[in-house]
Fold these 4 entries.
Entry 1:
Amino acid sequence: MQLYDQAKGNIHLSTARIPPAMAVRYVLDVSRSAFTVKAFATGLLAAFGHSPTIAIPDFEGEVSLSPHAMEQSSMRMVIHSASLNVTDDLSEKDHAEINRKMHEEVLETESYPEIVYECSKMSATQMGEEQYSATLNGELTLHGVTRDQPVTARASLNGDMLQATGSFSVRMSDYEIRPVTGAGGTIKLKDELKLSFNISARKER
């Protein structure tokens, strides 16, 4: 940035910081989004192909997007852990018992009601018109523990809508979550969970 110095009558470079690129704020639209967790069984449960799928129906957040300077973009999402719900076709009794175990013994939702993902380090490669391959280098806070959590996604802009799809894995042991077992230890879930998302966000006016 150049400024004219009236006292000396010459032009010099300003040392003032150039303002960041203009960011556009998008608010997550839960009604247009899908977010699930896949757990993988071992032992007897695996023999029956019983790997539960868990829906994440209640979350909120926003994206601050700088299309011409993606490294200045950021994101924050809050998941309300009490909303997680097993979606498998089970008896009413089994469904209730699995959900109870998940909330009381695994997630401990009364003590940890929120799961938070925050990212202020983002990079992206443009794949086509308004199409991007993005990497979010953020932090996930789960069960009271915060860890670095990279997430890759394919993102697209369509009018006032931003859409992102992708998946990433989380190890329960990294977040001090006890191994999930049942039937005296004969039924177990693997340490790794796979989270898949297809999330939409609407430009705030």
Entry 2:
Amino acid sequence: MAFYRNDPIMASSLKDLIYRLEEEGRPGLRQNISISWIRYDEPNPIAGSGRGTGWLNTKLIYPASIVKLVYGIAIEAWIQENLITDSEEIRTATYEMLANSSNNATSLIVDILTATTSGSKLKGEEWEKWQLQRKLINQWLQSLKWEELKGINCCQKTWDDGPYGREKDFYGFQNNNRNALSTDATARLLEAIMTDNILSPLSTKKLRNFLSRSLDIMERKANPENQVDGFIGEGIARSNPQLWSKAGLMSQVRHDAAWWYSKEQNPMLLIIFTNNEKLARDSFLLPAIANELNNL
């Protein structure tokens, strides 16, 4: 059962949009896009109060930098439970990971969360212990007992050009241990941040500050990696909302996870994953979907 109420009118609108976008020159779009789309009827909603729909929304897909949402929540949870001590370095790394999508900062955060480090190949008992430690984040996620999180995998660092040494071994045969998320899992995690439903209000406020995006055109031009242009934010910019988001982009995927609202509109949550090389290069698609859904 979804954590939001299924809305048949939204479902019909989403299906019509996906079919139309496929017919406009994106063969195979229906099989290579996943969406979770949720509207809220109150300006300050509580978790689980939304109505929405999805398209392949439980399909597990490599999330690229979307996984940094998980690591951001986890580092705050570890601090909250006194498993680690907060520090200026952790705060800076968490900011860089979420605000600027730094892979180097993400590497540090994963090391802190799991008490592991990258390096040369390991063998025997040392290798087995290292792998167990890396699975701590997955164990914590499963302890939440959220249906949407079953089967997901969030244990790998993110890379500029790929893993080496023990990290490459940990990816498994044919990369079968890569990170994997669904749009519904991502939606529930982002909703939890935005509604204070997973951490203390102070911790979720900190994460929201790191995820806040400027839609100012001059600021976007000054930062080509702004996580707005080519993503959901570009499609909703004309409505001048407040926006919180985290994008993911690499050669095979283009993803975004966004929550926004304005004076005229209650909050909306939209997660879009696309999964092939052609769609990853399509900087028009995510803004087009966001613009149309925002105006329905």
Entry 3:
Amino acid sequence: MFVILNKPHGLLVHPTDSSDEYTLRDFLIENFNISDVGEYKREGIVHRLDRVTSGLIVCPINTDAFNQLQEDFRKRKIIKKYKAIVQGSLRSKSGEINLPLIHSQNNRRKREVGKNGRDAITKYKTISMTDSYTLLDIDLITGRNHQIRAHFEYLKAPIVNDTLYGAKKVSELNQNTICLQSYNIEFKLFDKDYKFSINEPDYFTSIMNM
């Protein structure tokens, strides 16, 4: 019906026009009979994580599950939670960021806040703080491309090591690693409730102890 995968940072979810490297979609094709589940080159894919983001992703492996999960993502019925470490601190320990996003005018690889953009809502609360960093628990209400990354750049507290979004380079982390992890996902499928959760990666602890 579906599989839950813990995607490592550095791995693309599906092929792109500019790359033919190995992707999470290729892993699904190799291990499950999903050649007719979804559209070509995105078989079994109903949501994405950025290359630099790690964590949980749900992948339907039959058409009924695909159609139901795709519809539930569209209707925002899926609960997705992230942990992130941001540079510096935020004005409030918790809050809701409700700011629309557009393609960046200066860099087409990025998103940025813009009044005529698509609605984007991110809720957060502080777990812990140091002099340099803040560890956050994040509820992703909408799932726009680069949403969390763009929202926290706008608040002048970019995700640690996310140099595309204005963060300083952290020498201990490689360029395809930022401090953003999808750690919890909850959904209902065919009248059964599912909840999956994982621990934060070791490098989160290392960063917070720096």
Entry 4:
Amino acid sequence: MKAIRLLLALAVAGTAAWAEMRTERLAEGEESSWLRNVAFAYDDAEGEAAVGELSLNLGNDPLGVKYYDVPLALWREFAAAESKGKFYGERIREKYERTYGPEREEMFDSPLPTEEKVDVSAAFNEECEGVVLRAIEQSRHSIYIAAYAFTRTRIAKALLEAHERGVRVELKMDADQAKHPGAERIIAMFQKAGIPVTIIHTHGDYAAMHNKFMVFDMRGVVTGSYNYTTQAQVVNWENLVWLRSDVVAELYKRAWDAIVSDEM
């Protein structure tokens, strides 16, 4: 089965902001030394059925925690509870999806267009590596890589060959995945060759630098579910697209530039 090429219009719409945001905070004197800056933001137009985001700082942690889809009714109970700490521990702490530190939208304002026509190659499963290798081979100036997992030696060698012929190659990779023995070998190969490698640390037990994309010559992007691993190549169900567009490449490069480690 061969990769599919097609021409399509890539439409991107931003997430609509809540129309009537309201923020409530605990009254002065109701916070404690380990529950600080407690606030609840929700869409006031939804009335008593609203859900919102509960944000707070735990102890001396400056980054803060945010809980999502918390019912307004629960916030009212929390605000009225005699023991805020006990209520938080029993009714909130492990009950709702949460994130640590700032949201990505606070760190990177996606410069997305409403519509862009792009030339696309689509690939699936075992086809994916061939598309990646072809894009690397055709590159003449630069390759910027954001990798969640990277253990595939064949792709690494193609990037080393591109570097040797004068292509600027740079890699950013998730810190936890970089500890894999296969990834450690590839990182060592890149560093020995002089290819810059940046390890991205994220704050939170389940947070990750989860991107999988490469930007080629500021003219195209390869991206999809496909990690640069043998597991992805021979076992997983995967997809990948090669987007040929200067505009899309610029967007992905700006996103790549914005990828930095969280303050720990």
